[in-house]
Specification:
Blueprint lengths: L2 H7 L9 H15 L4 H7 L7 H24 L4 H25 L6 H21 L3 H24 L4
Helix pairs in contact: 2-4, 2-6, 4-5, 5-6, 5-7
Length: 162
């Protein structure tokens, strides 16, 4: 690898990545309290039933994981895969909220933070980290993010037995 590429791959990740857990929590708050709430919307569509306390509890655990990965990614390049997976999840989730709102022709909780934070921040994370990470682990981490989002949708909307 030439020295310019090596230098680029060793580039630092700035403090702006702390927007990831901040955007996540803003999105969770909108999902919980926007409209009649995402949990109610999911139940209306035949998905799993869970209380607002359960919804917030699950998302507090996820927030802790996101904050830990964000912290670790700022200290070691080994953890940058977490930013890529997070960026992929944010981007596809934001797009999913916009698509669901358009398809339903009404507001689906999470749409506004999807537009304001998730889509642009997810794209920025993917574009920035792509410049400082090798292609194979980058694409594997992005694929993992998309798979995680698909798994969550499968669990809340279609998992047999729930």
């Amino acid at each position: 690898m030439n020295s310019a590429k090596a230098s680029r791959r060793n580039g630092s990740i700035g403090p702006w990545v702390w927007m990831l857990p901040i955007a996540y929590w803003a999105h969770v708050v909108e999902e919980a309290f926007g409209g009649h709430g995402l949990a109610a919307w999911i139940m209306d569509l035949g998905g799993v039933r869970f209380s607002i306390a359960g919804f917030l509890g699950i998302n507090l655990v996820a927030l802790a994981i996101i904050a830990a990965v964000t912290w670790a990614s700022r200290r070691s390049p080994v953890w940058r895969w977490g930013l890529v997976s997070g960026g992929a999840i944010l981007f596809v989730n934001g797009m999913s909220h916009v698509a669901a709102s358009a398809a339903m022709r009404y507001y689906v909780p999470g749409m506004w933070t999807g537009i304001a934070f998730y889509i642009p921040l997810g794209a920025a994370l993917l574009l920035r980290v792509r410049r400082v990470m090798s292609p194979r682990p980058f694409w594997a981490a992005a694929a993992a993010g998309f798979a995680i989002h698909a798994l969550v949708l499968w669990i809340v909307f279609g998992m047999p037995g729930l």
